[in-house]
Amino acid sequence: MKKTTPTQPRHSADEVTNHVGYLLKRAQAALRGAMDKVLREHGLTVPQYATLELLALHPGMSNADLARATFVTRQSGNVVLRGLQDAGLITRPTAPDHGRARPAHLTEEGRARLAAVQTAVYAVEQRMTEAIPSHRMTALLADLDRIATALVE
């Protein structure tokens, strides 16, 4: 087990609202709120939308893979999949072909719902990214990736 010693922050934030973690969480909460608003108009939640996007890119993903990719537990992922299946947006076999995985696929209705909501969600992302000067976007994305990597090692 790697031992770590407490260190002083590399910046001199005199209050928690100026800490990197706080500001990241504030940005995430604002993004989630904006997405919730536009998705609600289409009868979807953020995890449901994320699942539809991922299945459009990678048909046949398992519940475990989808849960990991959408940042929810396997149990929550299963609830999301059941809701999407009940709404006719995805299909899954009633029994697994092998092992325990039941690969999910978008239905035509799922593809149509995803297409209908993408414009609204992408507009939210555009509003967010327009706040960043274009010459800094590549560095921001790299920094965010490095932050995530540093915390999972």
Automatic annotation (TrEMBL):
InterPro entries: HTH_MarR-typ (IPR000835), MarR/SlyA-like (IPR039422), WH-like_DNA-bd_sf (IPR036388), WH_DNA-bd_sf (IPR036390). This is Transcriptional regulator, MarR family. The keyword Transmembrane helix does not apply. One of its GO terms (molecular function) is DNA-binding transcription factor activity. The keyword Secreted does not apply. One of its GO terms (biological process) is response to stress. Gene3D superfamilies: Winged helix-like DNA-binding domain superfamily/Winged helix DNA-binding domain.
